[in-house]
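Morning. Coffee machine broken again, so started the prediction first thing and wrote up yesterday's gels while waiting. Chain of 246 residues, entered below exactly as on the submission form.
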Amino acid sequence: GGNLAKAIGEVCGCTAATGVDIKAFCCGPNHAIAVGSSLVYSGLFERVLVVGGCSLAKLGMKYQGHLKNDMPIIEDVLAGTAILLEKQDGEGPIVRLDSVGTHPIGAGGSQAKILEELVSKPLKKLGLTFSDIDKYATEMHNPEVTEPSGSGNVPQLNYNLIAALAVRSGQLERSEMEAFTRKHGMPGFSPTQGHIASAIPFLPHALEGISGGELTRVMFLAKGSLFLGRMTQMSDGLSFIIEGDG
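Came back before lunch.
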């Protein structure tokens, strides 16, 4: 209950600010960035701070898989994030609000369909190919945590699906899929606390890469069920692209 965003502002002494909670679970960071960017772009607010953190109750949630495989409990990190959104200044990277990918209610819950809505359609809208995105930041769960628990290598699975979509669209040969995932993907490296792992761990690296000229565009995509299927069986998802300004 209550408004956690305003509570954070109160603790930090930001008494002139307001706040609102964005509940989208594993998609929460992407939804919050899209909403916050829209508020800044519209001129309603000059700066929006997107803040999120982990849940103590989920710490070590996959410990049984680790113990079963004679491993230490490595899911022992409570991560947090803070992202400041401001008006574009002609220098830093920008969020492309004209290509936000959403998951319509009627789209269904298959992984291929979700990625079609989050990846294929936004690229087509901008006239871009799959290879025009330098890096895809997806669910960056560390496989050292998830594989012993039976969840597999989550980011690698997503990259394989993106590559398969590129093949189906005629932009990639099947024999090129592995090379595509190596070039445009990355190993999972994030703590596995749901929403924290969903795309945003790569954000500081993307900002540095774009500012330094090593990267041109990065797509951030997150997927998730609403309250883990307890409130509804519908899936969720949202993606956005950041690129250099000018």
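The chain has a mean pLDDT of 91. Going to sketch it on the whiteboard this afternoon.
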